[in-house]
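My current task is to audit a protein record that another person submitted. I need someone to confirm that the token line plausibly describes how this chain folds. Take the sequence as given and treat only the tokens as open to question. This is what I was given:
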Amino acid sequence: MGMKAQPSLINAFIPVALLVILLWCIASAQQLFQWQLDSWALVPRSWQGLLGIALAPLVHGSMEHLLHNTLAVLLLGTGVLYVSPRKWPQIVGVIWFLSGLGVWCFARQASHVGASGITHGFFFFLLTASILNRDKRSIAIMLAASLFYSGMVMSVWPREINISFEYHLFGALAGIFSGVIWGKANLKMPEKIYSWQRNKSADDPVIGDQWMLPEQKQARDSDAISTNVSIKHELPNTDTRH
């Protein structure tokens, strides 16, 4: 069974874009129909708050909050899917669940909402994967993510009272955990093999053997003669005349 083809960035972008569309549909419905989704919030150590482990990342406190997370979900989520296409559902599921569970168990008594825990999980997954793999694709994606979101390294600590740093922190820990488990499960980019690599003994088609020193040419010719003589000696006698 062959290896699954590596998706392009466009193909990696599409599933993440569908998730972002879902977030905007929920936020738009809240505005248009005055939906009150307070019951979707994650409230630590409350039975009702357990529902928030699954639903809190889908709800945002304001359109500005959602707008801030939209680009992060798009860029970082696409990077995760591009780096680890075969394990993307497991990665998202573990980050989603563990970040929420950590908030439910240890966070302050407040209503925690938003996809910031997911985005931090994506960022720290990419960081971990780039360290473990050290391949061109993982490092390139991580460098691109760092240009925009390197501040996530510091946002796991308390800064503002109305920002759920706990979601950031446990999202980051879930991302590191996922990176350790699945960070090296990604498909390596196939290396292109050129014709001159397939036949290493062939001379350059333009300059021929002009690059070789006289001693190298003599050694090559001697090896070729020796090889031909050996082959002739090893050929079986096919003469069937008596």
